[in-house]
Amino acid sequence: MTVIYPLLYMLGGLVVGRFIPSARTGLSAILTRILIPFVIAYNLLTYQAGTALLAIFCFIFCGVLFLLGQVFWRDKLRSLTFSYLNIGWLGLPLAIAIFGDAASRIIIAAYIGGSVFGNIACVLAMQDEASGRDMIRNTVSSPPVLAVFSGLLLHMSPFDLADASWLAVAYELAKQLMTIAGMCTLGIWLYCSKMTLASLRAAVPVSLLRAGLGAMIVGMFVWGCSELGIELIASNVAVLFILPLLPQQRIPWYWKPIIEAPVGPHRP
Q: What is the pLDDT of residue 55?
């Protein structure tokens, strides 16, 4: 039954897109400024062994896809859309619906790594003359990365917040709202986007290529973790194989200054 709920939320988004298409902006802001940062911070506050490994793997996973995209197309923006995946908005509700709530920690850890990658890759792809200082500034100031720092600081603080029942309740509520808002935003986007048969024909081969290459990368990671006896990975293999099946992530609001700001002698 839980598989039906994300579909209902997406259908609700289609209806909202028909009557209030501008709601997408508000929902996206709530997701990226409040819900997703809170969920990330709480997961790091209640840190479990293996979370950092998953985040690092997802960063490398996206990075390898980006480099492969460069090999295929020699186009940094196209490589960015090939490698920056919709892990938080679509991956999380799908994983919870299919595998249960236990899958949420896996996907959220992957989202942390993917978000850090996305902020770095965005600067590389959209500003030809981007400096290391620009890259660090824009990465560190992004909401997901600020949430990582906040979660780590809270984890190391002398206050025993990890066992606070009210925070646990707020976390469960935030996950549900994140699923609803994410799928609803996806529904609005689907309604508002101009899909044609030609665009679908162009997208399918790219998605199949990403799925095939991504599955090989995930497979090698799972094999290595199994050899090393890392239980968290071995017990969540199926969840990880969702990653290469996900579509590209739309550009978040906090990337707009990066896109619009001139760097060097010209703008991309």
A: 93
